[in-house]
Amino acid sequence: MSKAELHRDGRLGILRIDNPPVNAIAPDLVTAMDAALTAFEADTSLAALVIECAGRTFVAGGDIAAFDDPSFSAGPFNALLARIEASDRPVVAALFGTVLGGGLELALACHARVATPTTRLGLPEITLGLIPGSLGTQRLPRLAGVAKACEMITSGKPISASAAAAAGIVDKLAEDHALAARELALHLAGSGAPIRRTRALIAPDADTAGAVIAEARRAAQARPWLPALAAVADCLAASVQKSFPDGEGVEARAFSDLVRTPQSRAMRHLFFAERAAQKIPGLSRDAERRTISRVGILGVGTMGAGIAMCFANAGYPLHLVETSQDGLDRGKGLIAAAYASTVTRGLISEDQAQARIGLMTGSTDMADLSDCDIVVEAVFEDMELKLSVARKLGAVCKLGAIIATNTSTLDVDRIARETGRAGDVLGTHFFSPAHIMKLLEVVRGKDTAPEVLATVMELSRRIRKTAVVSGVCYGFIGNRMAEVYMRESEAMQLEGAVPSQIDGVAENPAFLGMAMGPSRMLDMAGVDVGARTVVEWIKSGKGPQDPAYRILARTLYEHGQHGQKTGQGYYRYDNRKAVHSDDTQKLCRDLAQAHGVTRRAAIPDEEILERLLYPMINEAALILEDGIAYRPGDIDIVWTAGYGFPAWRGGPVFMADEIGLKTIVARMDHYAAALGNEHGYWTVAPLLRHLAETNSRLSDWQRHI
Ligand code: COA
Fold first, then answer.
1. What is the DSSP string of 201-256?
2. Substitution site in 3, 17, 19, 22 for ligand 1 pocket (most atoms within 8 Å of beta carbon)
3. Mapping DSSP to helix (H, G, I), strand (E, B) and coil, where does residue 6 land?
4. Where are the beta strands (DSSP E) in 476-596?
5. Is 385 in the same domain as 401?
6. What residue stretches are annotated with the 3-hydroxyacyl-CoA dehydrogenase NAD binding domain (predicted)?
7. Which residues are catalytic?
8. CA 207 to CA 684: how far, in whole Å?
């Protein structure tokens, strides 16, 4: 069956698109739409045309996968849009679902648009490092104004149907969009009113567009690593200064340049990696799942409170348990304060906040968790405590309930065994603040039942987390890699680099572009939090038996210098502002001397970058070899969604391929020779060396299951 066909409904032609799952514009769909439009053009008995879609949404965009094809061209689709717009009989788009990218551009080429009230409309191309390539930059400003177009294109955020109606993008809102579109099409055909072609309009705010465009250029200059932003400004300028065909040329040239940039390739890689991460090898999409209607949270500290909010935000009734009434009150206080700040920032209304708080009950008796379908245990990160809690939960939780232990490093298998029902158990690693950070590592234990994993992955989607499955190991995917990154950051501080130089390199987009460098991040998260787990890891005999291993963090911890909250960590804090700390520098000199570390007058920025990044990439290869991550893309999602790794670099694995694996292996070997490799820190992962030798990409590596 063709993906688009022309039907007749009385005097109307109905061009119906049917290209599951999201009616994305692919080359064969364009061919089918072309034929359907030709049939409409030939049948002069039809008074007007309605364009509608089967399935769950109107067209949700161009087929992103097609952009990787070097022969890809938006030309045929754009020519089709021009023919639709040129029609001398009215064409109306019937919108519902997510009208994104090429979908909105198709709608803009029609003469009128009807949408259901729940429709979302947007041009998200910027999130793929692109600009709209099918005249979105030319038609949207003409219809809705340059300011609105600029906001929508540079943010990439979809807007509601009512906002679209207010902006003049949608002409009518109706629950029954198909019927309303037919009525409007017949009305337009019967009224004899001139056809309203978007290309012929002049932007309603053309007079003030200069200021908007100047501001867009300034914003683009501030983020030069996203060249799409400057292109948006150029295209918007063309939409008010040039003819439509000339503007079309400006957009086409910019799009074809951008689609080839490493930034856009990286961001497209993340789009598909994020979706691939939801798939569990060996588990079909319709695998059995357990029903979750009531959630229990055990331990309402900072983490537990944030986790509780995630569930309440998604409408789940919750029961919170703490060891004492004081503890429970403190936890509820944290939740109330966090909601109050959400209300102050205008993100939700006071009523919404109260409704969410109203979903929570609390007590100090674990037995009250017995009617919950899942219990997330978020007690302090201490193995003995976790084990004792696991024993109790194993007994208290009802048959079939899932037990999730929230941990950033601990052995989930050991905790699971302690419950006496390991099949029901898995780990969750929420990132702090849990109600804000997107990432959730879901830790699959040796015995975790497949339907338990499938249920929690589905639940993650409902609570709007980007979930990635990790196997059990110290630190899982994210913190295992962060460990080597921190190790080198601290080693270089002992060798003479100050934290501001190292953080500067990590944060500088010319080098890496992390949201926050390693020392600033540890100071913010609390040096004690990280150091305590490192101490335990070393004590357990599984961690590195190197006396100098992360000795700086361990010593700061012992000295009570826990970062921002104590006013002193890697940096000193002057009213929350990180400033150089002479004390920490003295400590670095003392530690260097005690551990026989040679200090240098200066460490070049290039070395800092390589020593932060390459061991992480090497660890990523080990994580893949060990089967801790299913796929290379999962690692990129963990780092971009959880650690502030820049999306435009595609994550550490994608970046490794851009740098070249041969280069990375050669530099690892270089550092092994230059710095010594007594503890194996510079031993190249066999997988990495093999892929480098065979000119392969780490991103493309697949485990053979
Ligand atoms: N091109 C190609 N494939 C697409 C696509 C597109 N524009 N949009 C979605 N898909 C695919 C996804 O890869 C996924 O495939 P899979 O099931 O094989 O993994 C499937 O459609 C469903 O998408 P998913 O995101 O899982 O569904 P959802 O209901 O959560 O969200 C959308 C639907 C449309 C909101 C979301 O997919 C989206 O934002 N798509 C991108 C839209 C876009 O950027 N368009 C502009 C492109 S220039």
1. ---TTGGGHHHHHHHHHHHHHH-TT-THHHHHHHHHHHHHHS-HHHHHHHHHHHHH
2. 22
3. strand
4. 572-574, 577-579
5. yes
6. 295-470
7. 105, 125
8. 61
Give the mean model confidence (pLDDT) for residues 662-684: 97
Say yes or no: 108 and 223 in one domain: yes
Residues 427 and 531 in one domain: no
pTM attached to this predicted model: 0.93
CA 60 to centroid of ligand 1, rounded, Å:
7
Q: Which helix (H) or strand (E) holds 50?
A: strand 48-53
Q: 375 with 500, same domain?
A: no
Please say whether the beta carbons of 330 and 364 come within 8 A. Answer: no
Instruction: Name the residue with the closest Cα to ligand 1, atom 24.
Output: 275
DSSP 3-state assignment of 288?
Answer: coil
**Ligand 1 atom having least distance to the Cα of 124:** 44
User: Each residue of 163-193: pLDDT tens digit?
Assistant: 999 999 999 999 999 999 999 999 999 998 9
Nearest CA to ligand 1 atom 26: 275
Quick: pLDDT tens for 86-133.
Answer: 999 999 999 999 999 999 999 999 999 999 999 999 999 999 999 999
Q: Residue 69 pLDDT more than 90? A: no
Q: Is residue 265 part of a domain?
A: no
Residue 252 and residue 383 share a domain = no
Residue 239, in any domain of the structure: yes
As a whole number of angstroms, the distance between CA 519 and CA 561 comes to 13
Among 470, 495, 518, give the residue marking a domain's end. 470
pLDDT in tens, 464-520: 999 999 999 999 999 999 999 999 999 999 999 999 999 999 999 999 999 999 999
Edge-to-edge strands, sheet with 120-122? 98-100, 120-122, 159-160
Residue 438 identity (one-letter amino acid): K
The reply to whether 281 falls in a domain is: no
Whole-number Å distance, alpha carbon 440 to ligand 1 midpoint, is 20
The ligand 1 atom at the shortest distance from the C-alpha of residue 130 is: 48
Residue with tokens 């294109």: 153
- Expressed in angstroms and rounded, the spacing between residue 22 Cα and the centre of ligand 1 is 6
Q: Which residues contact 271 (CB under 8 A, 6 or more apart)?
A: 64, 127, 128
Please name every residue paired with 360 in a beta bridge, in sequence order, or none if there are none.
318
Residues at CB less than 6 angstroms from ligand 1: 21-22, 24, 60-65, 98, 100-102, 124-125, 275
The CA distance from 241 to 575, in Å, is 49
Q: What whole-number distance in Å separates Cα of residue 157 and Cα of residue 118?
A: 15
β partners of residue 295: 318, 374
Cα angle for residues 224, 254, 68 (degrees, 5° grid): 95
Total tally of structural domains belonging to the chain: 3
Query: What span, in angstroms and rounded, lies between the C-alpha atoms of 430 and 408?
Result: 8
Q: What is the extent of the structural domain holding 463?
A: 295-470
Peptide bond into 317 cis (omega under 30): no
For 291: left if phi > 0, alpha if psi spans -120 to 50, otherwise beta; the answer is: beta
Q: Is residue 643 part of a domain?
A: yes
Q: Which two tokens stand for residue 363?
A: 């007590």
Interval between CA 61 and ligand 1 midpoint (Å): 8
494-525 burial string, b = 16+ CB within 10 Å, else e?
Answer: bbbbbbbbbbebbbeeebbbbebbbbbbbbbb
Tell me, what CATH number does 170's domain have? Answer: 3.90.226.10
Q: Is the pLDDT of residue 705 over 60?
A: no
